[in-house]
Amino acid sequence: MLRNIVKSSNRLALANRNATYRLYSTAPPNKSSRPSVAAMLAVASMGFAAYYQIVQSREGKTMPRRKEFTTPQEEEALRQKRLAEVKAKRESQQMKPIPAFSPEEVTVVFVLGGPGAGKGTQCQNLTKEYGFVHLSAGDLLRAEQKREGSKYGELINNYIKDGLIVPMEVTIALLEQAMQEAIKEGKSSRFLIDGFPRKMDQAIKFEEVVVPSKLVLFFECPEEVMLQRLLKRGENSGRVDDNIESIRKRFVVFTETSMPVVDAYEKQNKVKKISCDQPVEQVYQHVKSIFDEIFSESN
Ligand SMILES: Nc1ncnc2c1ncn2[C@@H]1O[C@H](COP(=O)(O)OP(=O)(O)OP(=O)(O)O)[C@@H](O)[C@H]1O
Ligand SMILES: O=c1ccn([C@@H]2O[C@H](COP(=O)(O)O)[C@@H](O)[C@H]2O)c(=O)[nH]1
To answer: What EC number is given for this enzyme (predicted)?
Structure first.
């Protein structure tokens, strides 16, 4: 555009100069004479054109000049680059998983605490009184381990014996399946998920693909108390991990891997702590007071 304006104003100035010679004089042009009106008009047009381009570029509009000087090949390369950028943006948006449930429809309470703290015992009471479905991640894994034809049977058994955390894909799939079934059967859409998440990756993935949790109950208990409870339970539980060797390993995993999950949820103000070194009924009264506050009719 600037070039066109300059060209046309040059033409105008030339025409004007020729006209001047014809009309007023046959003498050669006087170099010191004052500029003609046309020349001043040409200069003003150039000034305006330059101003127009500055304003356009400040508004983020492409300067027409750039287009004039771009070759068709460069234009095509630029178009392809922009297309690839749009495609990559769309793909990255589509890859973000959509959770299976919305937190408005499904309520999840994570129940955490050391091995033998009494999580399962308290969950059974809550199930009866508050209409929650109790899903123990450990129970689901043990059932899968025993299921005929399961390709994870041996793997789960080895992980449990060593107190290690089974790869999250297995546990999350089992939990989601159990939730879908409970909802389909019309049991409830409120879930107590016991002994999960025990590792940060599980927590993040579950909230991303299944549903964000509402609350985390954390059962605090001294290690010595948990040890005695587990050894007692091991007298007839039949569990491969209720023995002193496995229990020691489970305590280490709890401290090193599972406590950071509790800490992370504390930062989100989602954790309610309950002291478990008391008789079952006393612990339950504390849990009840929390549930009455959070899950009363109005909430
Ligand atoms: N407050 C309590 N006082 C005494 N014994 C308890 C108490 N709570 C639970 N127990 C007993 O302690 C043992 C462990 O309890 P429970 O199975 O509920 O723990 P847990 O936290 O679910 O354990 P895990 O994580 O190993 O499954 C059980 O035998 C249970 O009866
Ligand atoms: O998310 C989970 C939960 C449990 N495990 C394995 O199961 C055992 C027993 O769990 P309990 O909750 O004590 O019944 C646990 O030590 C882990 O090995 C898991 O891998 N992931």
So the answer is: 2.7.4.14
Pocket of ligand 1 (CB under 6 A): 113, 115-121, 138, 195, 229, 233, 276, 278-280, 283
In contact, 157 and 142? CB cutoff 8 Å:
no
Residue % of the chain over a pLDDT of 90: 66
Verify that 34 and 127 share a domain, yes or no.
no
Claim to verify: residue 173 and residue 33 sit in the same structural domain: no
Distance from the alpha carbon of residue 240 to the mean position of ligand 2, in angstroms: 12
- Annotated binding-site members for a ribonucleoside 5'-phosphate: 142, 164-166, 195-198, 202, 239, 250
How much is the pLDDT for 23?
41
Q: Are residues 192 and 44 in the same domain?
A: no
pTM, two decimal places: 0.75
Say how many Å lie between the CA of residue 6 and the centre of ligand 2: 80
Residue 58 near residue 66 (C-beta atoms within 8 A): no
Distance CA 63, CA 13 (A): 26
- Radius of gyration (C-alpha) of the chain in whole angstroms: 38
